[in-house]
Each structure stands twice: as C-alpha cells, then as structure tokens.
C-alpha cells in the first residue's frame, strides 16, 4: 500500500506592523475634521445670535407683541412698537401713554414729570391729546393739555423712548400738526418743529419754555451733510502807500526882450 502524501498547509499571511498605525492616523484625521466642522458651525451660530436685530428674534417678538395687543381694550391706540434689544409696545388709553415691556410684560403709565419736572399734564382736562413717533423713531411727539403754564393751555414735548427724558418743545394756546411736524401758536407768535423734533422757526415774542431743553432741541438730531470747508486765505498786511502830489509847475512868464540902449556918441540933436 502506497504511503499517503501529507496535506499541504496554507500559510497565513503575515500582518504588517504598519497597518494599525495607518488605521489610527486615518481615524484621528477624521475626528479632527469633524471637530473643525463643529467649531465652524458653532462660531457661525454664535455670530448670528449676537446680531442685535436678527430676523428670527424680531419675528418672535412681533408675535409676542401681537398677542399683547390682542389683550388690550378696544379703545387702546397703538403708537409704536420696538423689537430691538429693548422690545416694547407704546399705546394710548384713557388719555395716558402706556408702555408694555416685551420681555417682562409689565404695563406702566409714563410719568412725564420724572423726565422733566415742568412737563405737567392736566389729566382732568383731557390729558394727552395725541402721541406719534418722530421720523427716525427715536422719540415720541406728545401733544397734551398742560397744567404747568398758567398763560398757555397746551404743550408739545419730545419723549426719549430709551432714556425716558422729556424735552418740552413749547407751550401755546394751540398746537397743530404741520405736515410731519408741528406748529405751536401763542398771542402774536408761533414756533415750528420739524419731523425730528427740532425747533426750526420761532416768530414773534414766544418765550423759551424750557431753557435747558430748548438749547438742546434747537441743535438738530438728524444727520446733516457737512459743507466743504473753504481754504483759509491768510491776509497779508498791506503797507500804506503815501502818494506825494507834485506841486503844479507855473508856466514860465514870457521874457520881454529889452531894446538895447543908445550909446552916448557926443552928438545932441536940437529941435528946429
């Protein structure tokens, strides 16, 4: 009987020592890329949230203020709303100006005398008549019946929505809208206010009602285009030139030629 040949054994391929190292490097690289992507997205998200007027925040606050307005009395009149870093809703009701904080939902009645002691509103005789924002929405025009001036019954003031400061634009017998501004009239005088709350005209004998406020209000808050400055020409001192007028020259007198005198010759002519 012939001997059986031995079964050939398959040799296992030897694992390279470099394979685990390569796999580890690839894994580390993939983790690094993922971390960088996460950091990039996070930084972009942070910049978006830090913007003062992001679209999403404004829309959310708009819905909040809409919900607040829906709960107000029917006679309430919205004046303006702000959806920035200090969201608020201003409205008129019962001849008073109210402010609702968009974050805390607190409803407060504006006390104008806290912003200016002279801004006295007569709530027994009509209180606030109208309120509307200035053209740049920085302030509110408030036209009201006043008890702070014995000679004039109406007042126009400018309320700063951020600081609560009140600038009295004037007291008068009447206050009326003039385009986007106002006109304050008294006995023989009138004062004009533009759309930004600046006094632009004062005719007649109208007295300034609030010296400190009037000086500030007369300086315009709206942007102005600066006029190009003209080059300064330095004046050179001019020396005074004294002109001496020459004396007039008299015309020369004509010289009379003298006839030569006859010489004495020794002869004498006698008359015949």
Q: How do you describe this structure in short?
A:
By secondary structure, the chain is of the alpha+beta class.
Report on the structure:
The protein is of the alpha+beta class and 272 residues long. Helices cover 22% and strands 25% of the residues. The chain is built from four helices and twelve strands. Strand 10 (181-185) and strand 11 form a beta hairpin.
Radius of gyration: 49 Å
N-to-C CA distance: 226 Å
Largest sheet: 4 strands, antiparallel
Shape designation: elongated
- The proportion of residues forming helix, as a percent range, comes to 10-25%
Q: What do the pLDDT scores average to?
A: 76
- The run of helices and strands is HHEEEEHEEEEEEEEH
Helix-strand blueprint:
Layout: H1 18-50, H2 55-70, E1 77-82, E2 88-93, E3 96-101, E4 107-109, H3 112-115, E5 128-133, E6 139-145, E7 154-160, E8 166-172, E9 174-178, E10 181-185, E11 190-193, E12 199-203, H4 211-218
